Amino acid sequence: MVSVPKEWPGETVVILATGPSLTQEDVDYCRGKARVIAINDAYTLAPWADCLYATDAKWWNWHKGVPGFAGSKWSIEHSQWNNTRAKYTDIQRLRNTGVLGLEHNPTGIRNGRNSGFAAVNLAVHYGVSKIVLLGYDMQPSNGKRHFFGDHPQVSPSPYNQFRSAFETLVKPLAKLKIQTINCTRKTVLNCFPKAALEDVLPVRAEVAAPVVPTTSAR
Length: 218
Description:
By secondary structure, the chain is of the alpha/beta class. It has 6 helices and 8 strands; from the N terminus they run βαββαβββαβααβα. The protein has an 8-stranded parallel sheet with strand order 6-5-4-3-2-1-7-8, with helices on both faces. The N and C termini lie far apart (76 Å).
């Protein structure tokens, strides 16, 4: 049975969703400052991410399993995988244990009816203490639902249901003392505190080398 390893205890993770406000600049800023989970097409902005998560088997088919991605690949068990599972043996699939709330068993995951929700549960299994959300717009912008446009097959995005699902994560995350901050540039996901990315992941100041006093020659 597949289980998520608790490899990031106490660390910070940035989860990159695909909302229209996600920018290459913000993604690049995160590199080297935290663990990174890319959702769906967000891997195109962060091919160096630690993990790639996508719920839909059809998405993996569109991208042919993302063979060039070197990090771990995760999904969730559902009927779409029946005709696909043999094609992509490196994609690890967790048990689908329901829609709402937080799954604590690392062999399963709650789906929230969207990959952004499921990726939060994945991050919890890795053992993180802080989750930073980017690209979690939960709304269209300028006619776009994603930073890249649309998927090959366009399906409805029930944003109200998505937002309601995230509300069921607030108390379980707080109980685990996992700080969750929404740093998305333009978002209507209001159940988590919001902050600027630079305030949550500040640039680390270089430590100056100590000055060694010198004595002048006589």
